[in-house]
Amino acid sequence: MNAIFKAFPTNKSIKGFMNNKNVNKQTLSLLSLIATILIALAGYWLNVSSSSDTLHEARSPVTYIQNSSVLGRETPSEDLTRSVLLESVTKQLGNDIEWNDAGAFILNGNKTDLDASVSSAPYANLKTKTVQGQIVPTVANALLSKTTRQYKDSNQTGNGTTHFRPAGWNQVYQ
To answer: H/E/C letters for each residue in 90-127?
Structure first.
């Protein structure tokens, strides 16, 4: 029977064993805390350094040259603007097309034959949604003055409907 009791530790050795176990737990907890703090600091440092690079890139001026136009130029040249004015559009607009030196054309002496005598009040309507934590516009409708209204059917103006579907249309709308 003495052999059985000798296999188990005595009170003194149990206390020593428990103290060692507590020290091991404390050491492990301390090392875990230090590792967690180091990982958090490394993540913060990486985020700050990549953010400063992004800010630096955003502040640096970027110039793209394509079709002899320069991004950031205040207004496009008349030649560049006329290069995108198609013959079919010119036929619809008429012959009285005048360049205004500000990047646009004045049509028919800035006169219209459209009837603007309607009673709709001007309005602006903007709908938004949140995508990845940022608010983005989804629908924007505005009727700011009588001159912004279209009173002819798009089929009458030659700009009727088409069956064009932009890339991603099926994923968004079906």
So the answer is: HHHHCCCEEECCCCCEEEHHHCCCCCCCCCCCCEEEEE
CA nearest to 77, candidates 66, 69, 86: 69
Q: Could you identify the residue written with the tokens 């040259």?
A: 65
- The token pair at 144 is 């700011």
How far apart, in whole angstroms, are the C-alpha atoms of residue 9 and residue 17? 9
pLDDT tens per residue across span 13-67: 545 555 667 778 888 899 999 999 999 998 888 877 665 555 555 555 655 555 5
Query: What would the pLDDT profile of 108-126 be if each residue is shown by its tens digit?
Result: 888 776 665 666 777 778 8
Query: Do residues 106 and 98 make contact, with C-beta atoms less than 8 angstroms apart?
Result: yes
User: How far apart are the C-alpha atoms of 82 and 76, rounded to whole Å?
Assistant: 10
Q: What is the reported pLDDT for 65?
A: 53
Any idea where the domains of the chain sit in the sequence?
2-59, 65-147
Residues 165, 137: Cα–Cα separation, whole Å: 20
φ, ψ (nearest 5 deg) of residue 100: -100, 10
Termini Cα distance of the chain: 82
Q: What pLDDT does residue 174 have? A: 55
Q: Is the pTM of this model over 0.85?
A: no
Residue with tokens 């934590």: 133
